[in-house]
Write a structure and sequence with these properties.
- The protein has 11 helices and 16 strands.
- The chain has helices spanning 32-40, 47-63, 70-85, 92-108, 113-143, 169-178, 195-206, 219-224, 250-259, 291-294, 335-342; strands at 5-8, 11-15, 26-29, 149-154, 182-188, 210-214, 230-233, 237-239, 244-247, 264-267, 273-274, 295-296, 299-300, 313-316, 323-326, 329-331.
- It is an alpha/beta fold.
- It folds into 2 domains: 5-136, translation initiation factor eif-2b, domain 1 (Four Helix Bundle (Hemerythrin (Met), subunit A)); 140-341, Translation initiation factor eif-2b, domain 2 (Rossmann fold).
- The two termini are 35 Å apart.
- The chain binds 5-S-methyl-1-O-phosphono-5-thio-D-ribulose.
- The site of 5-S-methyl-1-O-phosphono-5-thio-D-ribulose (MRU) has 18 residues, from helix 2 and strand 9.
Length: 344
């Protein structure tokens, strides 16, 4: 399976997701600012993957701080953490990962600057390994929801590329395939960045799982034809009541699934759940450059002077969600009380 991100000799190395599937290129980050750039530019994307990238970015920034004085070190680290947490607003995994790094720095504080640096590197690597293990556990829980032979529709990319490895929504698909089930995936192409057509299709093909790309507009058509047995998507943030922020277009898919009596599942680790947010209206939605919409492969497709809007995520209200698949098991409605229990 593809390695999304790695820490090597005080460098962070990421596969360049802007270039896939045509080119398999790697971006090498030597400082925390290049990690921030990579997150903003979608070199690396997907909620759990940007969480791991942020943790590694903080570790990279810490390593480069040149002072033995703990107070000065902490002040600089704090500035790095603040910059890193602001790289993208919607996926809560980013802020969650930075917070976890801050805690490690605080706990190791008495042992001196070099010990804090070592602790931060160790924590970032641990988060990568943990994420992969969590996805495998989640896959195991989720695959039980799928029939022995079935067609799963997914939106965006919630696979190995969007995580440390294995994937959330695609982790469920992988686990089902590993259990011997005959799984076929319909991948929404996911305009405008084409995470589905480029990334989901690429990684499933690499893994030998049957995948067909469809336009986003065709999801309803295939549901109406009786071709879709289940929808599984990932999430960027889940509010305390189970409202789900995910890639723009997810809401449309969820409403369609309900109309056609197709179960709509969300696979996400606990790090994607934000218990501090009551419902989806409080989730900040990233607005991206309008050029992603007005242009295609560097050339303008919309008429000159016509503006575009480019919200990167939308909110699916909890009533459209059949179940949330986490590493702690499959959670069904009512979500508010059941999600709360996960954090006790
Ligand atoms: O803008 P992106 O590509 O970072 O958006 C990613 C998604 O919306 C994914 O579905 C989500 O992060 C879950 S990834 C396991």
């Amino acid at each position: 399976m593809v390695e999304t991100i790695a820490w090597k000799d005080n460098q962070v190395i990421m596969i360049d997701q802007r270039k896939l599937p045509r080119q398999e290129r790697y971006v090498v980050c030597e400082g925390y600012r290049s990690v921030i750039r990579a997150i903003k530019d979608l070199v690396i994307r997907g909620a759990p993957a940007i969480g791991v990238a942020a943790a590694m970015g903080v570790a990279l920034g810490a390593v480069k701080i040149r002072t033995g004085n703990m107070d000065r070190f902490k002040a600089k680290l704090d500035a790095i953490c603040r910059e890193m947490a602001a790289a993208r607003p919607t996926a809560v995994n980013l802020a969650w990962a930075v917070e976890r790094m801050r805690r490690v720095a605080d706990e190791a504080g008495l042992a001196g600057v070099e010990a804090v640096k070592a602790g931060l590197i160790e924590e970032a690597r641990k988060m990568l390994a943990e994420d992969i293990a969590i996805n495998r556990t989640m896959g195991g829980h989720g695959q039980g929801l799928l029939k022995d032979s079935c067609c799963v529709l997914t939106h965006c990319n919630a696979g190995a590329l969007a995580t440390g490895g294995y994937g959330t929504a695609l982790g469920v698909v992988r686990a089902a395939a590993e259990a011997g089930k005959r799984i076929e995936v319909l991948a929404d192409e996911t305009r405008p960045f084409l995470q589905g057509a480029r990334l989901t299709a690429w990684e499933l093909k690499e893994s030998g799982i049957a995948v067909t790309v469809i336009t986003d507009n065709a999801a309803g058509y295939f549901m109406q034809q009786g071709r879709v047995d289940a929808v599984i998507v990932g999430a960027d943030r889940i509010a305390a009541n189970g409202d789900v922020a995910n890639k723009i277009g997810t809401y449309m898919v969820a409403v369609l699934a309900r109309t056609h009596n197709i179960p709509f599942y969300v696979a996400a680790p606990l790090s994607t759940i934000d218990p501090s947010i009551k419902n989806g209206t409080e989730i900040p939605i990233e607005q991206r450059d309008e050029k992603e919409v007005t242009h295609f492969q560097g050339r303008r497709t919309a008429p000159d002077g016509v503006p575009a809007q480019n919200p990167a995520f939308d909110i699916t209200p909890n009533r459209y969600v059949s179940a949330i698949i986490t590493e702690k098991g499959v959670i069904t409605p009512p979500f508010k009380s059941r999600l709360k229990r996960l954090f006790l």
